[in-house]
Each structure stands twice: as structure tokens, then as C-alpha cells.
Design goal:
Radius of gyration: 15 Å
Shape: globular
Number of helices: 6
Structural class: mainly alpha
Strand content: under 5%
Order of helices and strands: HHHHHH
Length: 125
């Protein structure tokens, strides 16, 4: 029996995994550690607070934060340009509570993959 539809189409989980795998290719050990800590920070403080923290800390946090913003910008076009931190934060501020919850859930789902993929890449070196 042939599967219906396009069998080459990736599931959302596969897309997250693929994006995380690609993004962490050049991560340093410090960036891997930053990626590992972000989900807990988001759970404790919230997405916008963590993005602000990453922007303030710079260095290893900024690249991970920028990669996260790019993914979220792809998933939620309402967020606009992910490369502009101020524009991204303003877009988050304008979101309705339900949409903000969806964006936060997506951030956590993508970061789950990033944690795993970045650790796997660093462990393989």
C-alpha cells in the first residue's frame, strides 16, 4: 500500500531537528552550555525576559538567542525580522496572550532539539 500525500514532507518535529542540527554546527562549548540552560530560564522567567537577558549578556548567548529568534520568525511571520532584536521584542509585546503562549511553547520545543543536537555535535568532536 502506498502512503498518501508527499512522503518527502517533513513533520514539524523533523523541521525543528533539522534546523537545530544546522544551526549548532559551529557552536562552541560555551554556546552549547548556553543552549542547555535556556529552557529552564524560559520556564522560570519567561521568553521575553530570557531574550533580554541573552541580548544583555552577549557573547555565547547572543548567537543562540539569534538562532532561536530566526526559528520563531519562520514559524510566526507576525514576529517579523528576527535579526533586529528591538523589532522582535516589539512584535512579542504586541502579541495576544494566546499567541505569546504558542510562541513560548515553540521556543521550548525548538530548544529541546537544540540542546540534544548541540550536545551530540560537541560530543562527537
Amino acid at each position: 500500500m502506498q502512503p498518501r500525500g508527499n512522503s518527502n514532507r517533513l513533520t514539524l518535529e523533523q523541521q525543528r531537528a533539522q534546523d537545530a542540527w544546522t544551526k549548532c554546527e559551529r557552536y562552541t562549548k560555551a554556546q552549547v552550555n548556553a543552549a542547555k540552560g535556556l529552557p529552564a530560564l524560559i520556564m522560570n522567567s519567561g521568553l521575553m525576559q530570557v531574550l533580554a537577558f541573552c541580548n544583555d549578556k552577549g557573547k555565547e548567548y547572543e548567537q543562540v538567542s539569534q538562532d532561536l529568534r530566526r526559528w520563531l520568525g519562520r514559524r510566526f511571520p507576525v514576529l517579523g525580522g528576527a535579526d533586529d532584536f528591538v523589532q522582535f521584542m516589539n512584535a512579542l509585546l504586541a502579541c495576544k496572550p494566546r499567541q505569546y503562549q504558542q510562541i513560548t511553547a515553540e521556543a521550548l520545543a525548538w530548544l529541546k532539539w537544540l540542546r540534544l543536537m548541540s550536545s551530540a555535535r560537541k560530543g562527537a568532536e
